[in-house]
Amino acid sequence: MAQFTINPQRLDPYKNFKFRVKWDGKYVAGISKISPLIKTTQVVKHREGGDPGNLRKSPGQTDFAPIIIERGVTHDPEFEEWANKVFQFGAGDGTEVSLKDFRKDLIIELYNEAGQLAITYRVYRCWVSEFQALPELDASGNAVLIQYLKIENEGWARDTDIIEPEEYSDSKSGGKSKK
């Protein structure tokens, strides 16, 4: 079976550098890195009394690893505002956590080389367990300030409504870009 249905001649997999993240219906600015989406199912080992020589294995509980999202420090307060919904320093007793809206669903969109939406993942019931506002500062350094969120989640799934895009070809449009 071909790896790509629309363009079966394509051999190259999608690249990891064209992506966007959305929460609350808005794209989040400046994200430069996202950790892998990982799910792990525990193995339950057991033996049957009538068959003591063979060890059986069956699936147990499944856990979804936290996701780390990084971006350069800017004036956009989105990361900090979400982190503050889990714990707001200086808030009065009983108001430190915004129970109503500290969880969000995320959408991670992956694009092909031509900038066409190719794959989407939905990540469910996310909340911030760790927020780094500033990295280590170094007066003799030469680096971009990076902040990150460590996001706990209760599962993710590929959005199968997103189908493989018809790939852009300059020869189809006579040299004009296709929008």
From TrEMBL:
Instruction: Tell me which InterPro entries the record gives.
Output: CHP02241, Phage_T4_Gp19
What parts of the sequence cross the membrane?
A: none
Query: What Pfam families does the record tag this protein with?
Result: Phage_T4_gp19
Drop me one GO molecular function for this one.
structural molecule activity
Q: Which PANTHER family match?
A: CONSERVED HYPOTHETICAL PHAGE TAIL PROTEIN
Name of the protein in question:
Conserved hypothetical phage tail region protein
Organism classification? Bacteria, Pseudomonadati, Bacteroidota, Flavobacteriia, Flavobacteriales
